[in-house]
């Protein structure tokens, strides 16, 4: 047991180091640097916004003129002090920028995870109960076809339909600008009102995976001996499905839910861009365009650590659902 724990800690340390290295070197692979900003005038000629002297000054100010390995060591040293650096674009600590935008993303990601998981389990159970019937075939075909739609395209469809055509939801943003709320309930309603379409986009994008996993797992579980034994004891079909079949089928679904958070943390960049939602994905996009190295590193680190934490929580929940699993 002690050796297993030591092995787990060792793998965790190696994983974190690899993540830190990728977070640091990946932005620097991109062409240009944060201060080599150019644009084009009407004739198509490049216009230098920053002089070479100014660029060199800021490169030195942010330590980007040092060799890459020295920058990496400084980065690791600062991380030990919980210092993510200072954003070049926002002119403020990276941690402050992340804390301004991360709550919006976490709200839509966790909301989408709950909705897609619950809806996928319900639809998957219905489909498994009606296996090989017309309703099962129709739902299966629809879900598979629906899964081929990219999340950003799905977001555009929902935006055009419910915001532009029917005018039921706002086009962009997370709250109504310059709104004066009579109380916290009204403010919460406004936040949920703006988050509805981004949440539904992410939920629908992940729904098919949960549906198929639940359906196929339930079909496999219902062929097991303990299901036949439960029926032989005279238990009702509702009890057999809920207390025996569904409980065991939920184990891979829980794992899938943890992985979905990681998938959505990556896909949220495009979805937030479609709805101009001020989350961490939209901030990461702006940081990449502006070559804001410290902010890119900070956001990627937060996303990676969030995924690791979610995986650990999934393992804990898995062990509660199935005590035979040793953590």
From TrEMBL:
A cellular component term, taken from the record's GO annotations: plasma membrane
PROSITE patterns in alphabetical order: ABC_TM1
GO term, biological process aspect, one: transmembrane transport
Membrane spanning stretches: 7-26, 102-126, 138-162, 191-214, 253-275, 295-314
Keyword Transmembrane annotated: yes
Membrane topology: Multi-pass membrane protein
Keywords: Membrane, Transmembrane, Transmembrane helix, Transport
Compartments, as annotated in UniProt: Cell membrane; Membrane
Domain (ABC transmembrane type-1): residue spans on this chain: 102-314
First-listed, main subcellular location of the protein, grouped into a coarse class: membrane
Family: Belongs to the binding-protein-dependent transport system permease family.
Protein name: Peptide/nickel transport system permease protein
Gene source species: Methanolobus vulcani
């Amino acid at each position: 047991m002690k050796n297993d724990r030591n092995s787990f800690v060792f793998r965790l340390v190696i994983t974190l180091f690899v993540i830190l290295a990728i977070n640091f070197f990946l932005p620097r692979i991109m062409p240009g640097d944060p201060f080599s900003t150019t644009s084009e005038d009407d004739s198509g000629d490049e216009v230098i916004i920053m002089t070479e002297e100014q660029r060199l000054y800021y490169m030195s100010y942010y330590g980007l003129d040092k060799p890459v390995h020295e920058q990496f060591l400084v980065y690791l040293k600062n991380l030990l002090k919980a210092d993510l650096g200072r954003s070049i674009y926002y002119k403020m600590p990276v941690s402050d920028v992340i804390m301004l935008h991360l709550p919006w993303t976490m709200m839509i990601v966790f909301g989408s995870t709950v909705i897609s998981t619950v809806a996928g389990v319900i639809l998957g159970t219905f489909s498994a109960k009606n296996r090989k019937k017309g309703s099962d075939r129709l739902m299966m075909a629809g879900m598979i076809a629906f899964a081929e739609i990219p999340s950003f395209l799905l977001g555009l469809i929902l935006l055009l339909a419910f915001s532009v055509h029917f005018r039921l939801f706002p086009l962009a943003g997370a709250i109504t600008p310059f709104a004066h709320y009579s109380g916290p309930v009204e403010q919460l309603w406004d936040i949920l009102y703006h988050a509805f379409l981004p949440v539904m986009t992410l939920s629908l994008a992940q729904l098919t995976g949960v549906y198929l996993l639940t359906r196929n797992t339930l079909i496999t579980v219902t062929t097991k001996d303990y299901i036949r034994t439960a029926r032989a004891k005279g238990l009702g079909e509702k009890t057999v499905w809920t207390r025996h079949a569904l409980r065991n089928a939920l184990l891979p679904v829980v794992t899938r839910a943890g992985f979905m958070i990681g998938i959505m943390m990556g896909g949220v960049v495009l979805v937030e861009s479609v709805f101009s939602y001020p989350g961490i994905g939209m901030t990461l996009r702006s940081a990449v365009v502006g070559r804001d190295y410290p902010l890119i590193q900070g956001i990627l680190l937060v996303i990676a650590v969030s995924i690791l934490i979610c995986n650990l929580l999934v393992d804990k929940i898995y062990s509660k659902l199935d005590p035979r699993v040793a953590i």
